UniProtKB/TrEMBL annotation:
This is BAR domain-containing protein. It comes from the Eukaryota. Residues 277-318 are annotated as: Disordered.
Length: 318
């Protein structure tokens, strides 16, 4: 554990002889430790969330590249209705030329070639799908350089940096807690010394007020008590201020974080919705504005769904 943790251990462990003397102080000292760990966990989670946000377009682009590979395979490898074929005699023919008498005229007794059956793969649809996947990848590439820079710096300056400030504030209060615990320990020990001297004198039947050693120990005890009470008051004030700052931080930074996340992913969703995605896709957002709002105010009919379906008819909402 670092220096801050060592300071807290001094509060809770090194002064075990005074544990229980001030239960409220003990509770607050331990609470600082828990709060420190909570801030560290929050910072790690925020950093991970921001990293995921920044990499989202790239991950989506990789998915688009995967679909492009599949579409390219269909586009270049599958037989189409107009693809060149060979009949059983090895003579080339195409699906668009069912009459192949010129090719078969030189062979006597050869069976009349039959036109190939209709293709099972639609080449036109395969081409459309490939183009749509490429457009999707290009859109995600643009997102990675355009959108995150709008939100990342805000989250860094108003959320992550504020967490660091709270961790630093926590360390200062813990340092004051250590000073308070040291003063408490000195006071408790001085009080024990004065009490022990008083018992010794009483057993001898002597006047306590006339004993110089007892008087000196009592003065030392009272001095240390005043110092302890002063440091305790400082600690309590700093602790209360920190709790108030923690509440303020939680409210303000949460709002900034959520606003940034919503704004960022809204732009991602809108880009996906209107980058030639299937018009009837179940993932199509229902809350985003009409595509005319994203294209300069001019309304446009949806594009082909890229899967052979018809464009989704526009429906006027009331």
């Amino acid at each position: 554990m670092g220096k801050v943790g060592s300071k807290l251990n001094d509060i809770t462990n090194a002064n075990a002889n005074v544990t229980g003397y001030n239960p409220e102080f003990d509770y607050r000292s331990k609470n600082l430790r828990r709060l420190k760990e909570a801030f560290k966990a929050l910072k790690a989670s925020l950093a991970k969330a921001m990293s995921n946000m920044e990499s989202t377009p790239q991950h989506l682009k990789e998915v688009g590249n995967g679909y492009s590979g599949v579409a390219a395979f269909l586009n270049y490898s599958a037989g189409g209705g107009s693809a060149t074929r060979r009949d059983s005699t090895g003579i080339e023919m195409t699906g668009s030329t069912p009459n192949v008498k010129a090719a078969a005229a030189g062979e006597s007794g050869a069976a009349t070639p039959v036109a190939p059956p209709p293709a099972r793969v639609d080449r036109e649809l395969a081409t459309e799908s490939l183009q749509a996947s490429k457009r999707f990848c290009e859109a995600m590439e643009a997102l990675s350089t355009r959108v995150y820079p709008k939100y990342g710096p805000t989250m860094l300056s108003k959320v992550i940096s504020e967490v660091d400030n709270m961790i630093a504030l926590n360390a200062r209060v813990m340092s004051q807690g250590k000073a308070t615990a040291d003063c408490m320990s000195k006071y408790v020990n001085a009080r024990k010394s004065a009490a022990a001297r008083e018992r010794t004198i009483s057993k001898k039947g002597k006047d306590v007020t006339a004993d110089e050693t007892h008087t000196r120990l009592v003065n030392d005890r009272d001095t240390k008590e005043r110092v302890y009470q002063r440091e305790l008051a400082r600690f309590d004030d700093q602790y209360d201020d920190m709790m108030a700052e923690t509440q303020k931080f939680a409210a303000e930074s949460t709002e900034v974080f959520l606003d940034s996340v919503v704004g960022y992913y809204r732009e991602v969703v809108e880009t996906i919705d209107y980058t030639d995605t299937p018009a009837r896709s179940k993932t199509r957002s229902r809350s985003v504005p009409h595509n005319g709002d994203l294209m300069g105010g001019e309304s446009h009919e949806p594009m082909s769904n890229g899967l052979g379906g018809s464009p989704k008819p526009s429906v006027k909402t009331v």
